[in-house]
């Protein structure tokens, strides 16, 4: 049974304030927007205009945190689950992406596991550096079909680094689970072989009691459909949207199956791909999913005690 999402109450006072502000400022009014064929402002627009921030529940005893680290146009997620630390992807190989520095600032010396969702440079760019500088328990990655295995220096250097460290790569296998000190990571996809490297992304769900986080790499709509048809339980309270918020991912059917309260889009400021795409953002608004973006919010950190979830945004430098 799908979890029923608590509806937010829209108070009339902020809307009246907006009407006054827009009227006095000479900005387009609601009636004028309708006359011009424009839609009425969304709650997200209202929230931004008034600089209203929804205060999360303060969790005094949170012992689990999930960090969606701002690495520019790329992905990197750190899970801190009691004494266990897991890194999923490591951003692109650019100077401003200091994922190793972020881990050091968290006083992390050992990563119990690192997951490579797929070997595109914006997901593995700094992984070789991380493997060199930290103690690593295990490395996981999907088995990529020979026809689409990349031959880039970034990927071959990563493989060489893993070998030199005396590690082997464990296959991400749907149905397998990695137990952590607090909670576990369920490996959910890919459930098929694809010709597109994005669709070969590892799909992972981290669960700690009643709190769950779905991490989708760059998975696109074809793989989303197959994942839904696999019959696995998709529900999660937080989702990291696929492919940096691209319109090729995050289909309506998939989002409805996951039924998240929060979504995170990991993308770079002013990126050349125009991520996130308007179609994706419109779906988020339609489904009433509170959405964070690393290009605007910086690093996004969720904390949970296994029941409640709170969030904070570190913000962009400068």
Can you describe what's shown?
With about 325 residues, the protein is of the alpha/beta class. It has two domains: about 10-50, no CATH class; about 65-315, Metallo-beta-lactamase, Chain A, CATH 3.60.15. It contains eleven helices and 17 strands. It has helices at about 10-25, 30-35, 45-50, 100-105, 120-125, 125-135, 155-165, 220-230, 250-260, 280-285, 295, and strands at about 65-70, 75-80, 85-90, 110, 115, 135, 140, 170, 175-180, 185-190, 205-210, 210-215, 240, 260-265, 290-295, 300-305, 310-315. The strands form three sheets. It has an eight-stranded mixed β-sheet with strand order 8-7-5-3-2-1-16-17, with no helix packed on it. Strands 9-10-11-12-13-14-15 form a seven-stranded mixed β-sheet. Helix 9 links the parallel strand 13 (about 240) and strand 14. Helix 6 runs parallel beside helix 7 (about 155-165). It is globular and about 50 Å long.
Number of domains: 2
Structural class: alpha/beta
Query: Helix segment count?
Result: 11
The largest sheet has its strands arranged as 8-7-5-3-2-1-16-17
Quaternary organization: single chain
The main sheet comes to: 8 strands, mixed
| Number of β-strand runs | 17
What labels describe this entry?
about 325 residues; alpha/beta; Metallo-beta-lactamase, Chain A; 2 domains; eight-stranded mixed beta sheet; seven-stranded mixed beta sheet; 11 helices; disordered N terminus
